[in-house]
Structures are given as structure tokens and as C-alpha cells.
Design brief:
The chain is an alpha/beta fold. It has four domains: about 1-160, no CATH class; about 245-370, Heat Shock Protein 90; about 375-515, 3-Layer(aba) Sandwich (Rossmann fold); about 530-595, Winged helix-like DNA-binding domain superfamily/Winged helix DNA-binding domain (Arc Repressor Mutant, subunit A), CATH 1.10.10. The chain contains 21 helices and eleven strands. The protein has helices at about 1-5, 10-30, 40-60, 65-85, 90-100, 110-125, 130-210, 220-245, 250-265, 285-300, 340-350, 390-400, 415-425, 440-450, 465-475, 485-500, 510-525, 540-550, 555-560, 565-580, 585-595; strands at about 270-275, 310-315, 320-325, 355-360, 365-370, 380-385, 405-410, 430-435, 455-460, 480, 505. The strands form two sheets. The chain has a six-stranded parallel β-sheet, with helices on both faces. Strand 6, helix 12 and strand 7 form a beta-alpha-beta unit. Helix 6 packs antiparallel against helix 7 (about 130-210). The longest helix is centred in the N-terminal third of the chain and has 77 residues, at about 130-210.
Length: about 600
């Protein structure tokens, strides 16, 4: 009840005052002058109380019915009053004013005729009086109410337009600021990747000449390498400063600051809450959720006409969830316009999802999910490089160390040495050659996935081999790439894999998927316990679908099945395609309807 009263305009209080005055006149007149009422006073009082209470209840339950209920209840009550208390008929003028205030250009005809003509004429006829003066009074009262209604609506529209203008101006300002920050962030990485790669190549090239120059020239070699190294460090420091902006603090602080600024500029109540232990997130996640919250807050006020918004930021070991819930008017049909599509595209770049739930009269809930990996110390991606050719391992280490996002925890010469390193340092990603002396890459991959299911493994090779690549991916590898890959593509691929994706060199991607399909078909063909599952699903896909139905996330499924998270994602993509659905929720619903699991 209090929430309703907080939304009232002056107009609503005026209507309540007129209605209360009318009820007081009916009751007080009956007590002061009982001769005015020829029927028992309690009957008149009970009927008057119903006329006083029921229309307002209908107004807040079913607004479209309000005017009709108001006209009928007040009109028929005064028809009764024409018989029971003719001296109080004039009080109908007050209801004519109320109905005029509630009328609009679409309704004034069918509300004005009963209030100004029909009921006054019937009242005059029942009370055996000339109705003309009464009809004029009621018509005049309705006209006054309708005139004030037009003024009130104009005032409301002007106020809404002003609020919308302020909101849009603020929205545009924030978009400009964030666009500038994103462009600075992108530019810093772009320059880092290009200039950094060029200087790294210069350093490696000059170093490779060290053994072929006379001893007297070694000092010049050292000088050139030192100049290149110092230049590289200077550029890294400058670009690090360029990439920092107002969002260089924690995610919760950034979002809290945004909600506070929004509350001050719009007057809308915004409650912000953090659930779980906050984890360090990448800058791109910070920017993405900042934009999502900004757009959702703007939509809540601009389209939803909300007066209060609840924002919850959830941290858990698997994902990051931002939930924005408002008390606005809601809608039964969600339209993905420019704003929501922008949010969705940003989340999909981070392998996240967007869910919007709304219902007319019940507000809107926006949920943004981003898969959250355990963030390494200081936000860096910790790498182990494994290759039996030291020049390759050193070159990769040299290239990747130039990027602020990576830390090389060590290098190894074969699979056995790699396993020892993994035991000690637990890297986020193992970048490993396939063909090595001793334990090769595929053998090491199997051992790593069995001992550390969450550790991401990327296999490298000099020449393309689709069968080898398919085998690696089937056994849980998150990536398969050629050693000739450009350094910029290498770093981007590693970042994608760290964020939960899978990377396959584009030159062999099609053949790899065909080989994986052929291997599965061969396995199913010669399986002694072959079963026919609906929609052409395999036994493993059925198993994954069962885990999805149990509410498990990709990471939990991967741990249970001793697979990588990327492999589980690949299985789910194939699963959704076979079922003809687009997401987890639709797959689970179809599975339950069809009794697949």
C-alpha cells in the first residue's frame, strides 16, 4: 500500500479528498438531519461506503475497468438516493468532477454523457423535479474536472519529457566516456601487439647474429639489444598507462559508483548488493558488465517507468552473474532493440549469456552471465611452454613475455619434465609440442587431463595433421595450432582459451571436424553395445544432457567426465544442433518433454 501511495501525484490526493468529502457529507447529513433520509441510515451508509471503496480498488487492480465501474456505481447509487434522500442529489456533482478528472480524449464522450445528461435526467425524474438545473451543474462539474485532467496530463508529459531528456543526456555522456575507454584499451593492445612484436623480432634477430660476429663487435650487439629492450619496456609502460582509465578499480566498486551516480541524477532508488567473494576479473569483463548495467538502468526508467531498481552481483567459482530487477510497468513481449542486442553481443564475445524476463505490471529482470575462471595472481595468464627444441621454446618465451597478460612459469623439454612442472607451478595453460623425444604431447595430454582436469592444454605442431588434431581434441585439448602462427594470433588464441573457448587453426578446422565425426561414426558402428538414441544422439551426448538436466555447469560436467571444459562445450554445441535448440534451457525442456533423460 505504501509503495502505491509513494507514486501518487497531487491529482490523486485531490481525487481522494473530493471522494472523502462526498462520503462525509452523506453520513454527517444523515446524522444531523435524519428527516433528509427516508430509509434506514445504515443502509445508505453501507451503500455509500461501497461506492467510496470499490472503484479505487478496481482502479489499482484492473485500471481499464475503473471508469466504467465509477460511472455505474456512483450513478446507480444516486438513482437510489433520488428515492431515499432527494435533498442530497446535488452531491452527484462531486462525482462528476472526479469522473471528469479521470477521463481522457478517448473516453470523455461515453463518460460525459451519463454524468452530464443521463443520470441527472433520471434523478430529476425520480425525485419529481425539473432536471435542467441539475443537468447543467453536473455537466459543468464534469467539464471542470476534464479541463483539469488535460492540464494535469500536459504537466505529466512535460515532466516525463524533461526526465527522459536528462536521462538520455546522461546516457549519451556515459556512452561517450566508455567508448573512449574501450578505444584506448583496444589501441593500447593493438600497438603493443604490433610494435612489441617488431621489437621482439629485432631482439631475436640481433641475438641470432651474436655467434657469427667478431668478438670486438659483441659490445655493439649488446648495445643494440639493450636499446631495443629499453624501448620495448618504455612502450609497455606507456601503453599500460594508456589502457588504464576510470574502471581500473574492482568490478563491484565500478558498478556501485555507476548506481550512485544514476540515483543522484534520476532520483530512482537503486539498491546494490554483492553476493559471494569478489574475484579479480579482466578489464574486458569489467567494461562489459558496466555497459550492461548502464543500459539496463536506462531502460528501467526510460521504458519501464520504474521507481526502484535492485542490482545484484553474484560471484561463484563457475560464473559471474549480474541481475538487474525493476518495479516498472513491464511488458509481455520483449523486443531486442539496439540496446539489448548490444548487451547480448558483448556478453557473447566473452562466452556469456543474456536473459530478460518481464511481465506486464510486474517489472523486468535482466540477467547477464559470464563464465568465470579462477583468476591468476595479478590477473596474468600463467603459461608453461613444452618443446624439445630449445630455440623454439626460448623464442616463444621471449615473444609471450612481451605481453603484460602472460607470465611464463617455466619451460620443459618433454612430457615427463612438463608433468613435473605442472605439479610444482600449476599453470593456467600448457603450450606443448606434439612430437617430442620421450613422452610426446598426446601422452602428456592424457596424463595432465587425468590429474588436473581444469588445466588447459594447447598442442602445437609444425605440419598440419587433421587426424592428430582430432585425436588431441577428443582427448580434451583446448587448442591445436601451428608453430608458424603469427604472434598476435597466438596471444589472442591463448586469451580466448583462457576465457573458456577452444581454438583450432583455421587451415585445418573443417577437416578436423570431419575427422572427429568419422571417428565417432566408426566407434558407434563397431560398438558391441550400440544403442539407438532419439535425434541421432550418442551415448556421451545423452550423458552430458543428463548432467545438464541435473543443473551442472560445463566446468562441473568436465570434471565428472574427465574432459576439458572446451570439449564439453563442443559436445553441447553438437547436442543443441541435433535437438534443434539454441541454448541449455531449451535443450533441458525438450529432453523432459520427450522423456530423453
Amino acid at each position: 500500500m505504501l509503495s502505491i501511495l509513494k507514486k501518487w501525484f497531487l491529482y490523486d490526493w485531490v481525487v481522494l479528498a473530493i471522494r472523502t468529502t462526498w462520503l462525509a457529507i452523506i453520513l454527517i447529513s444523515g446524522f444531523i438531519n435524519p428527516s433528509l433520509i427516508i430509509t434506514p441510515l445504515w443502509i445508505v451508509g453501507m451503500l455509500a461506503l461501497l461506492v467510496y471503496v470499490i472503484p479505487p480498488i478496481v482502479q489499482y487492480r484492473k485500471r481499464s475497468w475503473y471508469l466504467a465501474v465509477e460511472v455505474l456505481f456512483s450513478g446507480f447509487f444516486h438513482l437510489y438516493l433520488a428515492y431515499a434522500a432527494p435533498g442530497l442529489l446535488w452531491s452527484f456533482v462531486l462525482f462528476a468532477v472526479i469522473i471528469g478528472l479521470a477521463s481522457s480524449w478517448r473516453t470523455y464522450v461515453w463518460t460525459g454523457i451519463p454524468c452530464g445528461l443521463v443520470f441527472p435526467a433520471l434523478n430529476g425524474w425520480l425525485a419529481d423535479r425539473l432536471p435542467y438545473e441539475f443537468m447543467f451543474s453536473c455537466s459543468f462539474g464534469f467539464a471542470i474536472g476534464f479541463a483539469f485532467s488535460i492540464l494535469i496530463q500536459s504537466h505529466k508529459q512535460a515532466q516525463i519529457i524533461q526526465e527522459q531528456k536528462q536521462l538520455l543526456e546522461r546516457h549519451i555522456t556515459q556512452i561517450e566516456e566508455l567508448t573512449l575507454m574501450e578505444e584506448r584499451h583496444r589501441l593500447s593492445h593493438e600497438l603493443h601487439d604490433t610494435i612489441g612484436h617488431a621489437l621482439t623480432s629485432l631482439i631475436v634477430g640481433v641475438e641470432s647474429l651474436r655467434s657469427s660476429v667478431p668478438a670486438v663487435q659483441i659490445e655493439r650487439i649488446d648495445s643494440l639489444v639493450g636499446i631495443a629492450q629499453r624501448s620495448l619496456n618504455d612502450i609497455r609502460n606507456h601503453l599500460h598507462q594508456l589502457s588504464h582509465g576510470p574502471l581500473n578499480h574492482s568490478l563491484s566498486e565500478s558498478l556501485l559508483q555507476l548506481t550512485e551516480e544514476f540515483r543522484k541524477s534520476t532520483g530512482v532508488t537503486v539498491n546494490f548488493r554483492v553476493i559471494g567473494s569478489e574475484a579479480l576479473v579482466l578489464q574486458k569483463m569489467n567494461l562489459c558488465l558496466y555497459r550492461c548495467l548502464q543500459e539496463s538502468l536506462t531502460n528501467a526508467v526510460r521504458h519501464g517507468q520504474a521507481s526502484a531498481v535492485s542490482v545484484q552481483l553474484h560471484f561463484d567459482s563457475h560464473q559471474l552473474r549480474l541481475q538487474i530487477e525493476d518495479n516498472g510497468i513491464g511488458t509481455d513481449s520483449i523486443r531486442f532493440g539496439f540496446g539489448l542486442n548490444g548487451i547480448k553481443e558483448r556478453l557473447e564475445q566473452l562466452h556469456g549469456t543474456l536473459s530478460v524476463h518481464s511481465q506486464s505490471g510486474q517489472g523486468t529482470v535482466v540477467i547477464c552471465n559470464i563464465p568465470l575462471q579462477a583468476a591468476p595472481v595479478h590477473g596474468h595468464i600463467r603459461l608453461l611452454i613444452v618443446d624439445d627444441q630449445s630455440i623454439i621454446a626460448d623464442s616463444l618465451q621471449h615473444i609471450l613475455e612481451q605481453h603484460a597478460d602472460f607470465i611464463i612459469v617455466g619451460t620443459a623439454g618433454d612430457g615427463h619434465e612438463a608433468l613435473e612442472h605442472c605439479e610444482r607451478s600449476r599453470p593456467d595453460i600448457v603450450l606443448m609440442d606434439i612430437r617430442m623425444q620421450g613422452m610426446n604431447g598426446l601422452e602428456a595430454l592424457l596424463e595432465m587431463k587425468q590429474r588436473w582436469p581444469d588445466m588447459k592444454v594447447v598442442l602445437m605442431t609444425t605440419f598440419e595433421d587433421s587426424i592428430q588434431a582430432a585425436t588431441a581434441l577428443e582427448h580434451g585439448a583446448e587448442g591445436y595450432m601451428l608453430k608458424s602462427l603469427h604472434p598476435r594470433e597466438l596471444t589472442e588464441a591463448l586469451k580466448l582459451i583462457y576465457s573458456g573457448g577452444t581454438w583450432i587453426d583455421q587451415s585445418i578446422a573443417t577437416r578436423v571436424f570431419e575427422e572427429m565425426k568419422r571417428q565417432r561414426e566408426q566407434l558407434e558402428k563397431y560398438s558391441p553395445q550400440q544403442e539407438n538414441y532419439p535425434y541421432g544422439l550418442t551415448k556421451r551426448e545423452i550423458e552430458i544432457l543428463q548432467h545438464l538436466s541435473d543443473g551442472l555447469r560445463y566446468k562441473s560436467i568436465a570434471a565428472k567426465m574427465f574432459l576439458s571444459e572446451g570439449t564439453v562445450r563442443n559436445y553441447c554445441s553438437t547436442l543443441y544442433s541435433k535437438l534443434g535448440v539454441s541454448n541449455r534451457e531449451e535443450a533441458i525442456e525438450l529432453a523432459r518433454v520427450e522423456n530423453i533423460v
